[in-house]
Amino acid sequence: MNTTQLECFIAVANTLNFARAAAELHITQPAVTHQINSLEAELETKLFKRSTRSVTLTQDGLIFWEDATHILQSTKQAKAKLSSQSTEAFSVFSIGCHNSTELRLLPPILCEFTKKHPNVHPVLKTIPFRSLESFLDNGTLDVTFDFKNEGPEKKNMAYLELQKTRLMCALPKDHPYAAAKTITTQMLSTEKVILQEPPKLPPALFTLQKPLAESHPPKDIYFCENTEAALILVKAGLGITMVLDLELLREKDLCYLPFENPAVLSYGIHYKKLQQTTVLKDFLAISKKNIRTAS
């Protein structure tokens, strides 16, 4: 796999047109086709559905799009660092989250962190749950904000807990259930539900969503690609969604109800044990102080 293949893939994925992708890349259309064919052969899967009239991404193509984007971004950053003519050295500190909602935790942390380390450039990445750990493991990310693994931590990984959390339902404040203390799956059985795509869900939330998806008729289910979209539909009064609650990120105009006997989960920062530099230690300490103070 090389950057030319990835650039061709991203161009076709963004335009859904081989001719337009070729024009953007200033190469011929057969060259783009060759690069896509060779990439699909290497990955042993089809990335696009092609007909004489249209081009669409396959499910594997949608999944690979995120990985390809992050690989290209990392490559460009590496080249930029090596080719920089600046006399003042700087380093990059890459931070991974699951979605842009979680990024809202970072402004006060980064404000304090960059004052202490002005020559460190934070890079923010949003990555699906299934990919976050692998990006940390291969060095693409320095830290990840994530839920604690249910199993034992890998030998080379460490974890700092920032907050306890649990499964909640988000619903409009004027909903009949808003006055309840807790919510049950039985109560949800007659409600329209807003569900998120499985690759972007933590295991605990996927386990809760699965029976709801199987028991509800299609007309009573809205599928969303992320938490932000799900909360928009809740605000529109279209249904109820399930979230892993982080109190700092609650939407003020929504009501949040816990499930009966919810499992308590840990949310925090994963990082590599052997990379505990001063920069990393300071980031961990600042994150812990800011989030626990605000909670």
Mean pLDDT across all amino acids: 86
Give start-end ranges of low-pLDDT stretches: none
CATH architecture of the largest domain: 3-Layer(aba) Sandwich
CATH superfamily of the largest domain: Periplasmic binding protein-like II
Can you write the helix and strand succession as a string? HHHEEHEHHEHEEHEHEHEEEH
Percent in strands: 15-25%
Share of residues in helices? 40-55%
Instruction: Round the Cα radius of gyration to an integer and report it.
Output: 22 Å
Q: How many beta strands in the DSSP annotation?
A: 11
* CATH domain fold name of the largest domain: D-Maltodextrin-Binding Protein, domain 2
Write a concise keyword list for the protein shown above.
295 residues, alpha/beta, Arc Repressor Mutant, subunit A, D-Maltodextrin-Binding Protein, domain 2, 3 domains, two-stranded antiparallel ribbon, 11 helices, 11 strands, 23% strand, globular
Give a short synopsis of this structure.
The chain is α/β, with parallel strands linked by helices and 295 residues long. It has 11 helices and 11 strands. The chain folds into 3 domains: 3-69, Orthogonal Bundle (Arc Repressor Mutant, subunit A); 86-163 and 266-294, Periplasmic binding protein-like II (D-Maltodextrin-Binding Protein, domain 2), CATH 3.40.190.10; 164-264, Periplasmic binding protein-like II (D-Maltodextrin-Binding Protein, domain 2, 3-Layer(aba) Sandwich), CATH 3.40.190.10.
